[in-house]
């Protein structure tokens, strides 16, 4: 296998998507290795999970830095020092500057708990229930300067059921998140997902029939 891409995961909280990525990357044939987990909050629960998994961790406290530029400069020192090639945002609750995003153009990906471009921003599950949608889900996308914007790599849809609570729906979406984020990172790290204009073209065998609701764009379906 060609060399595995060196990945950093940026978190602010519990880190369940981070754990899904670490578990996937533990497989020897996975095309990426998680070498660093970085949190803007020293108390993020995910830092403990990452350390238990044997991954290097660093907390760069946003509050300890005078401004966004200083905070992002500290993050860049950590990322460059670890030789990071791809950055995964996984519940990282800071808006990144256009400069930072540009520096990681097409090497910075995010997971968002909705089927973008629907429900950008926060409280996506509440808003999906309020809108009465029948399908909800999640998206992994390349990051652009606009919030929750950028070429879509993989999406998953889940049904919204009668009587769903926010927690029930969030849990159903989270299960899908844990499946599509490792898939999307594998596509990016292996070079099988490439950006063409504002879209991602995926060069891969169609997924197994067991994954009917996971929908990357394949060349033969455009
Ligand atoms: C996930 O729902 C993710 O989509 C969103 O923030 C949440 C993070 O959860 N961006 P976790 O920390 O990965 O458990």
Question: What are the main properties of this structure?
Answer:
disordered C terminus, binds 5-O-phosphono-beta-D-ribofuranosylamine, 2 domains, single chain, Rossmann fold, alpha/beta
Proportion of residues in helical segments: 25-40%
Order of helices and strands: EHEHEHEHEHEEHEE
Structural class determined from secondary elements: alpha/beta
CATH-defined fold name of the largest domain: Rossmann fold
Give the strand order, joined by hyphens, for the main sheet. Answer: 3-2-1-4-5-6-7
Oligomer type: single chain
State the helix count.
6
From the spread of the alpha carbons, the general shape counts as globular
CATH architecture of the largest domain: 3-Layer(aba) Sandwich
* Beta strands, count: 9
The count of domains is 2
The ligands bound in this entry are: 5-O-phosphono-beta-D-ribofuranosylamine
Distance between the termini: 29 Å
Largest sheet: 7 strands, mixed
Let me know the average pLDDT: 92
CATH class of the largest domain: Alpha Beta
Rg of Cα set: 17 Å
CATH superfamily of the largest domain: Formyl transferase, N-terminal domain
Low-pLDDT segments, ≥5 res: 216-222
């Amino acid at each position: 296998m060609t060399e595995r891409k060196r990945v950093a995961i940026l978190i602010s909280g519990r880190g369940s998507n981070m754990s899904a990525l670490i578990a996937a990357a533990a497989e020897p044939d996975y095309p990426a290795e998680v070498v660093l987990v970085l949190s803007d909050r020293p108390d993020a629960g995910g830092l403990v999970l990452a350390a238990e998994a044997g991954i290097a961790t660093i907390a760069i406290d946003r509050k300890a830095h005078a401004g966004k530029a200083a905070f992002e400069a500290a993050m860049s020192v950590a990322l460059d020092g670890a030789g990071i090639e791809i950055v995964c945002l996984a519940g990282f609750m800071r808006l990144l500057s256009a400069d930072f995003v540009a520096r990681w153009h097409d090497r910075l990906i995010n997971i968002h708990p909705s089927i973008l471009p629907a429900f950008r921003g926060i409280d996506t599950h509440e808003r999906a229930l309020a809108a009465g949608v029948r399908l909800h889900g999640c998206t992994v996308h390349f990051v652009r300067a606009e919030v929750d914007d950028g070429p879509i790599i993989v999406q998953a849809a889940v049904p919204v059921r009668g009587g769903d609570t926010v927690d029930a729906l969030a849990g159903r979406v989270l299960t899908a998140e844990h499946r599509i984020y490792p898939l999307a990172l594998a596509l990016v790290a292996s070079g099988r997902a490439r950006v063409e204009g504002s879209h991602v073209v995926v060069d891969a065998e169609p997924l197994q029939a067991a994954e009917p609701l996971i929908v990357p764009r394949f060349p033969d379906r455009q």
